[in-house]
Amino acid sequence: MTKALVKREIRVVANPDELSHQAAQEFVRLAGEAVRAKGFFTVALSGGSTPRGLYTMLASDVYRKQVSWTDVYLFWGDERCVPPDDPDSNYRMTREALIQRVPIPKEHIHRIPAEREDHAHAAGEYEQTIKTFFHLNTGEFPRFDLILLGMGDDGHTASLFPGVSVLEETSRFMCSHYVEKLGAYRLTLTVPVINQAEHIIFLVSGASKAPVLQEVLEGDYQPQRLPAQLIQPVHGRLLFIVDRMAAGKLTRTGV
Ligand code: 6PG
Q1: HEC states along 105-117?
Q2: Where does the record place the Glucosamine/galactosamine-6-phosphate isomerase domain (predicted)?
Q3: Quick check: 77 and 194 in contact, CB under 8 A?
Q4: Is 90 in the pocket of ligand 1 (CB under 6 A)?
Q5: Residues 168, 128, 119, 158: is their CA dihedral positive or negative?
Q6: What does the pLDDT look like over 105-164, one tens digit per residue?
Q7: Is the CB of 158 under 6 A from ligand 1?
Q8: Nearest atom within ligand 1 for CA of residue 157
């Protein structure tokens, strides 16, 4: 399979704090553009410690007042199949780092109901939430203004892990699946939904990500092994904000 050439920007910054600043500035900019253009901003959030740094930064005095939170609508790119107050919950992490510190109306927060016993039904319920919000007809995909993504050291993103069947999903918006390596169920947006976004921003930090980031960005196209390579916006923009440690094995950052 040939490697698709995707227009993307790789922005290397000094450290995790600068990564969070740069990501917060992008968030503020994109939210402002969307609200000016259409009156609202839709974003699908990611779990993980690197994205959490952004949420904390957005809630800080430096950035909190630069976003019109009453015009922001939150979704999630993936969720662990645990209750919303579980330490593993992406929703709980976001509530603590961001939601409870900014004036976003609670009806603007579209949490994935991943605690449901029937994971597949929960995925279908969330898909309906998205269809209703975006007023979609059959066969149409949502276009989020922004989808935030992290990257695992195995090349996963959202809950799209190496070798799982959901990597090939072409029509559903959200799927539930058992992740062998975690011994746990996850719910995740699918590749076609992510790739419809206007802006996709990866946040990658730390030396442990350097080998996989180099493979994802500069290596052969092997999306089953490196699911992050599947993220190729159809008409939007792809930005990697990475710190110097994570960029340590990159040979070129201009592509
Ligand atoms: C999750 C995320 C996952 C995460 C990466 C990177 O639910 O954990 O969706 O894709 O973003 O594993 O996480 P770190 O930034 O903590 O390395």
Answers
A1: CHHHECCCCCCCC
A2: 15-239
A3: yes
A4: yes
A5: positive
A6: 999 999 999 999 999 999 999 999 999 999 999 999 999 999 999 999 999 999 999 999
A7: yes
A8: 10
Tokens linked to 244: 């110097």
> Looking at domain 8-219+232-243, which of 3.10.450.50, 3.40.50.1360, 3.60.20.10, 3.40.50.2300 is its CATH number?
3.40.50.1360
User: What is the Rg, in whole angstroms, of the alpha carbon atoms belonging to the chain?
Assistant: 17
32 Cα–ligand 1 center, Å: 26
CA 38 to ligand 1 center in whole angstroms: 30
Q: Whose CA is nearest to atom 9 of ligand 1?
A: 158
Counting from 1 in the atom list of ligand 1, the atom nearest the Cα of 50 is 15
Cα separation of 81 and 29, whole Å? 32
Cα 101 versus chain centre, distance: 21
Other Cβ atoms within 10 Å of 208 Cβ, number: 12
- Residue 150 CA, ligand 1 centroid: distance in Å: 5
Cα 82 to Cα 13, 44, 86, 87, 108, distances in angstroms: 34, 19, 6, 9, 21
What's the one-letter identity of residue 128? Answer: Q
